[in-house]
Every structure is written in structure tokens, then in C-alpha cells.
Specification:
single chain, 279 residues, alpha/beta, Protocatechuate 4,5-dioxygenase, Chain B, nine-stranded mixed beta sheet, three-stranded mixed beta sheet, 37% helix, globular
Length: 279
């Protein structure tokens, strides 16, 4: 498909606010974050990434360390699962548009795979959504991946384990016979604790991720011992990646907003990780 064929495009509601709206400035910022990211050796085939979704000035460096792991790789499609922070009734949402727009260009939506997903579970399509947590990952993907890709965008309003488990299993089912698919879970961790408190609380959630425990990710939030605004997205991607062969999790980076802002009184926690099939 060419750019001219995308007639129904979701415009970006966050470009110029959460990340630079100027294409040259955006590309430069992403390239610099990727270049500055320390390499991490992943002894296997990466199936999925977990990345944060705050503004680039806060969580960009932690996200960059994960996205660096797939730099130069080609994927036919990318599944991005995020929370839905806004008030919608539907448990699982996607876009009704044919493509997403960022300053770096347009990304077509994989309608065929979405139809296969919708045949196995309810997914509600919405127009002109204001959600930042899915879109924020797209410029990174556009910049680091080799060539174009199609997008399966999914946003969870219901983040119970039942919904996450169903979505993860269905994604695994429809993707297990395909190749060249990358899964991405978008989530931040605790919000507005002191830096010291946040680092202690967040390690409880990071441990669940490291243990590849999707039930634990949901459980520790329900028990109010740790927090992740995209806990359902993380759990779903852990399950889906497992069905695609991932059997290991590597925590790539952890930070808080204090690392870039200097404000230690009220912070947000960030983690990035790779889910991979070990050699």
C-alpha cells in the first residue's frame, strides 16, 4: 500500500506535547536516545518488549534501551497493547481508522489480523481516541525497525486477569502460524510516591515480570503491593509471547522520573524488558 491509499487516518493528539512534533527533531531525539542506550545481550530470539509510556523526556531513555534490542530488524507486523486511560465502557478497544499518523509518517492497521482477533473475542473499534500510551511507542518503532510494518493496536479498559488471559491466548492463537511479529506491552509503574518509596514498591512488580508471572502482575496490584497502569497489557503480552515460544524474560532497565527531572519527591516508575526464546 502507498501513502495515498490511507484515506482514514488517526491524527496524533499528542505530537508536540509528549514528544516532538517536528519530524527532524523527533528523529534526532530518538536516534540520540538509542545511541546512548547501553547494549544488553539477549541470548535468544526476542518475541516481545515491555516499555514505559511517559513523555520522552522522562521515560524515553528506559524505552530506548528496550527498542535498541530490535534496532535494524524487520517485522511484518507489530502488536502494541496498552491501557486505556480514558472513560470508555468497552473492555478491549482498537482503532476504527485505517492508519495511525505520527510526524514520521503513517502506519497501516493490520485489518486482516484484527478481524481474526475479533472473531474470537469482542473488540470495540473507536475513532479519534485520545490515548497516549499506545501512540507514544510508534515513533520509536518507526525509527528503529527496518522497513515498514502493519500495526495491531489494542487498548485495555478492563485489566482483570480474565480479560488479559483471553487476549493473550487469542493473540497467540492467531499469530502462532505467522512469522516476523513483534509484541509490545506499554506500561508505567507506580505513580507519585517519593523516589525511595517508588523504587521499593516497583521492585515487587518487576519481580513478577522477571518471573514471567502474568497472574502475579495482576495479583500484586489487586493486593495494593505494587502498581502498573498497563498491568493487563503486560499480562496479556507475557501470555501471548509464551504461546509464541518465549520462555525467558530479561529486565533491561529500571528508572524513575527523578533520573531525568531531578525531582525525588513525587515520581513515576519505569521498566523495560525483553521476552525471548532462549537459544
Amino acid at each position: 500500500m502507498t501513502k495515498l491509499e490511507y484515506k482514514d487516518i488517526r491524527p496524533s493528539p499528542i505530537a508536540g506535547q509528549w514528544y516532538p512534533g517536528n519530524p527532524s527533531h523527533l528523529a534526532k531525539d530518538i536516534d540520540e536516545m538509542i545511541e546512548a542506550a547501553d547494549p544488553v545481550e539477549i541470548p535468544g530470539e526476542i518475541k516481545a518488549l515491555i516499555v514505559p509510556h511517559a513523555g520522552y523526556i522522562y521515560s524515553g531513555p528506559t524505552a530506548a534501551r528496550a527498542f535498541k534490542q530490535v534496532q535494524g530488524k524487520h517485522y511484518d507486523r507489530v502488536v502494541v497493547v496498552s491501557p486505556m486511560h480514558h472513560l470508555y465502557r468497552e473492555p478491549v478497544l482498537t482503532t476504527a481508522h485505517d492508519a495511525y499518523q505520527t510526524p514520521l509518517g503513517e502506519i497501516p492497521v493490520d485489518r486482516e489480523m484484527l478481524a481474526a482477533l475479533e472473531a474470537q473475542m469482542p473488540v470495540s473499534a473507536i475513532r479519534r481516541d485520545p490515548e497516549h500510551s499506545l501512540e507514544i511507542e510508534l515513533p520509536f518503532l518507526q525509527r528503529v525497525l527496518d522497513g515498514s510494518f502493519e500495526l495491531i493496536p489494542l487498548m485495555l479498559r478492563d485489566q482483570t486477569f480474565g480479560t488479559a488471559e483471553k487476549l493473550g491466548e487469542v493473540l497467540g492463537n492467531i499469530l502462532e502460524k505467522t512469522t516476523d511479529t513483534l509484541l509490545v506491552a506499554s506500561s508505567d509503574l507506580s505513580h507519585f510516591y517519593s523516589d525511595k518509596e517508588a523504587r521499593q514498591i516497583d521492585q515487587v512488580m518487576v519481580k513478577q515480570i522477571s518471573n514471567n508471572d502474568p497472574k502475579g502482575v495482576i495479583r500484586v496490584e489487586e493486593e495494593r503491593r505494587a502498581f502498573a497502569c498497563g498491568r493487563g497489557a503486560i499480562a496479556a503480552i507475557l501470555i501471548a509471547a509464551g504461546k509464541l515460544g518465549a520462555n525467558r524474560v530479561e529486565i533491561i532497565d529500571y528508572s524513575t522520573s527523578a533520573d531525568t527531572s531531578g525531582d525525588t519527591h513525587s515520581v513515576v516508575g519505569y521498566v523495560s524488558a525483553a521476552l525471548y526464546k532462549s537459544f
